[in-house]
Fold this protein.
Amino acid sequence: MAVLNEEQEMLRDMAREWTRNEHPVGAWRKVRDAGQPFDADAWGEMGEMGWAGIIIPEEHGGTDFGWLSLGLVIEELGKSLAASPLVPSALAASAIVLGGSDEQKAEYLPRLATGELIGTLAFDEGPRHTGLKVSTSVHDGRLTGTKAFVHEASRAGLFIVLAQDGVYLVEKGKGISLSKRAMVDMRDHAEIDFNDAPAQKLAAGGDDLAQKILDRARVLTAAEMLGMCQAVFDTTLDYLKQRVQFNQVLSSFQALQHRMADLFTELEMARSAVEGGLQAIDSGFAVSEAAALAKARANDALHLISREGVQLHGGIGMTDEYDVGFFLKRARVLEAAWGSSSHLRDRYAAMKGY
Amino acid sequence: MASAAEADAQNNAGPSDLDAFREEVREFLAANFPPELRGKSNILSSVEEAGEEGPAEKAWRLAMGEKGWGTPTWPKEYGGGGLTRKQARALEEEMAKVGAWNPIGGMGVMMLGPTLLEFASEEQKHEHIPPICKGEIRWCQGYSEPNAGSDLANLQTMAEDKGDHYLVNGQKTWTSGGQWADKCFCLVRTSRADKHKGISFLLIDMHAPGVEVKPIKMISGMSPFCETFFTDVQVPKENLVGEEGQGWTIGKKLLQHERTNLSGGGALAALNAQPLHKVAERYIGLDESGKLADAELRVRIADFEMRWNAFLLTARRAMEESKAQGGVSEISSILKKAGTKLGQERAELMIEIMGYRGLGWEGEGFEQKELDGTRAWLFGKATTIYGGSTEIQNNIIAKRILGMLDHQ
Ligand SMILES: Cc1cc2nc3c(=O)[nH]c(=O)nc-3n(C[C@H](O)[C@H](O)[C@H](O)COP(=O)(O)OP(=O)(O)OC[C@H]3O[C@@H](n4cnc5c(N)ncnc54)[C@H](O)[C@@H]3O)c2cc1C
């Protein structure tokens, strides 16, 4: 665990208590069974607690606590699979912080900070993230293109859209149509068709704005995945300590002790990589490398831990009634988001010049 | 199987006899296999959910059942085909040529039949095996209980001796197909005196008063298995297979049949599926030099395909060695864990190749094949848990094959 300041510790404890008491996995199960994208009341509470504004400057209604702070909250939410648009909305806000004009900041950031406005990223155009080459284009302030598998799409009022010549803001409304994509994690994904939709460029961010946004997306997604790793690990460890077969608790079998020791090792290395990624964004130093590292380690650790979590529970792990399967399903969706491990390893090597 | 070996010895079919047999098969298929069923699969042996049987399927099942060719090497007197192994292979080949499949299947064929042939009384064989050969009765497996999973011998379901019948009380769980089954082969406790020797093998009518099933929903969204409750269920004494207390021996033998089928089944399913590199070509594409555009994934796909081939070679070697030795080859012990692990790896790689399209749950934007793939990936997680988990297989390999005994 990174060394936290007092403010960060408070924030983390608050998030931990809230998810434990108000929003455990059972709350997500209800949302799923009701067929909702997320719990609107819970999102309202997150807004009141200021979580949507953690990386937004104070002058625009945020708290400017920084990325490590936001990551701590996201990790806690990941532990209970809390369905909320917090990650994509914070990423949308960061795009405006990085690349927006003063007018754009004043227009959108205060509403994003309260949670009243929900934003999301619409970058990828296919089922696999393959980098920043897209065919979406803009003419005379009108944007046209199709974006695939946009996260938390149905309630978003603001889209941060990657086009050939830069990153654009598109408000929900004319020229936009959504079609739902029901994925295994039962979350709110959609394909979005932009057809001559009015768009404003985020012109202040420099040439590498899209890359910077993508780096942040990787790190924040990795923070959610870290929370999921921790939750599955803890649940599995508890289970092995309780379940008796052959007149002994399963945790007394050395074969399983070693498996858990291996998972623990992967988990702790993923934690360091994720916290390192968050701190890199806060310090502005070698962010792209740290982001690729964070997401690749989170991908691989969660892949392993979610798989082993099911296996080590035996039959009960295969049931819908038990939570561990939810983590497996969400895991694969997040592994695919913003770069699979193989994409990130390739990128890492390229950044290192080999 | 002993019966096929006997038939082999008696009837050492030469090549010309085999040709005549092939001709008989071809005629039978032409007359009886409804062409519209080409390439479909056996709904009775589907692991996840029982489908509806249409008229053509029914006619095909009845025709094959009449011949006994769904269970080709089982003895004729109990409704089997009475074929030699060579004839059975010829039958399989001829069927494959016209896209025909075996309509007789399920746990009765895979597990119970071979066990009854070995352990049951003459009356029991005549009563229970013919309906299996004809595909008339669906069986389920009542082994696991809430506190008896890997430690199966810890089972607590009691069968109390009441003179002319047993009175059964207790709970089974994870009973695959319990809600569709007519009968259940069960491990029950007839004595509390000894953990293993108190276990007996009992056949229970699922429609009898006091039997209740509660389907359990799985992570793949289906409910293919159940909790099964027995409350004062009366089971006739003649449904005991073997002797009282012999259940552990019989039950373990049945598990061997199950495991053989599980590793083999996985192998077959993947053989029929498209090779991974073909799928990858479609979803990822090739670069200018004709290589898969994702270099790292390309290497991992090759790694998988090579290990898969090594597995198939091992499965074949195990079969040949077993045949030559006239007993089960030692390397058979690795087949279940290796086959199921590779099956899972394949499903994971498939998802990685397809990206989000490999993660569809339902509805618009996905091909049916992609959606089926998602469910199969999730269901496939069970293959390393049931039929003796991978960890239990490893224990067996380490202790029985490698002699790595506990130090106590
Ligand atoms: C889809 C599905 C279908 C099934 N169908 C049937 C059926 O039709 N009939 C039936 O009777 N049963 C059925 N089962 C049950 C299955 O046989 C059991 O789930 C299995 O035996 C494991 O038992 P358990 O679930 O109690 O897990 P546990 O035994 O509690 O095991 C939990 C974990 O601990 C590990 N473990 C246990 N003991 C050891 C040890 N000594 N050393 C190292 N690791 C150990 C296991 O491998 C597993 O990873 C089915 C299960 C599934 C998932």
The pocket of flavin-adenine dinucleotide is lined by residues A 243, 245-246, 250, 253, 255-256, 311-312, 314-315, 318; B 140-144, 149-150, 174-176, 225, 382, 385-386, 389, 391-392, 395 (CB under 6 Å). Residues 209-242 of chain A form the longest helix (34 residues). The longest strand of chain A covers residues 189-201.
